[in-house]
């Protein structure tokens, strides 16, 4: 049974479609199915094998967007069936722009090591810098409270050298990355996103991800309560899962349609 979709929801981004340009890292991890199910509504069937599904993260710097320059980290909880294909489930979205918080209510902050002229993911993933390694410290902010979320270490030397010398940076590709999200305290609706990407793609080394320190976890109480704290910890588990593939997106142009509210949940393909 296919989902029945209503009119698109409104947004502070202006009239759709919305165009984002920049660079990104798309990393796929093997995520335990039990972890992924904590994010996914009951009416969805998880795409899994041997107790695992595909999750990971999408880490991007947008040099041009409907709200200007900002950074984004999308935690991909897993893959769900969307007959006849499948869709990613966006479990958590963190952004560095107050305006972009209309689509993701958390914030992300990046701390480069060593210091760089540009404090953006664009140079962190090898599109505008000269360092071989970059640490990105991600924290969540709500009101005046902030909590460490993770640290992402990127090795960029080869990509930087290739780009600066004008060498090949991967073939041009067009792809569709549909996804579902929603059912949160900020937006209780089930949302379906349509995303078309044009970019140059190449394989790259997976990023190394570290979670917050045990001391920081022990002393930080999530402002939204125990349930949100559990979802936060599960999101970190997704990021810490075993990486199997990392793709570097250069010359990225992403066209996003306004998300659609799904009025009737999807049934498992085996159900009637």
Q: What layout of secondary structure does this protein have?
A:
Elements: E1 5-8, E2 18-32, H1 33-37, E3 52-64, E4 70-82, E5 85-95, E6 106-107, H2 121-124, E7 133-142, E8 145-155, H3 157-164, E9 172-176, E10 179-182, E11 190-193, E12 195-203, E13 208-210, H4 214-219, H5 226-240, E14 242-256, E15 260-262
Parallel strand pairs: 5-6, 5-10
Antiparallel strand pairs: 1-15, 2-3, 2-14, 3-4, 4-5, 7-8, 8-13, 9-12, 10-11, 11-15, 12-14
Entry keywords:
5 helices; about 270 residues; mainly beta; 15 strands
Distance between the termini: 8 Å
Unreliable stretches, pLDDT < 50, 5 or more residues? 110-131, 159-166, 265-272
Question: How many beta-strand elements?
Answer: 15
Largest sheet: 12 strands, mixed
**Mean of pLDDT:** 77
Quickly give the structural class.
mainly beta
Structure described in brief:
With about 270 residues, this protein is mainly beta. It is built from 5 helices and 15 strands.
Structure description:
By secondary structure, this protein is mainly beta. 14% of the residues lie in helices and 45% in strands. It contains 5 helices and 15 strands. It has helices spanning 33-37, 121-124, 157-164, 214-219, 226-240; strands at 5-8, 18-32, 52-64, 70-82, 85-95, 106-107, 133-142, 145-155, 172-176, 179-182, 190-193, 195-203, 208-210, 242-256, 260-262. Strands 1, 2, 3, 4, 5, 6, 9, 10, 11, 12, 14 and 15 form a 12-stranded mixed sheet that branches. Strands 7-8-13 form a 3-stranded antiparallel sheet, covered by helices on one side. The radius of gyration is 18 Å and the shape is globular.
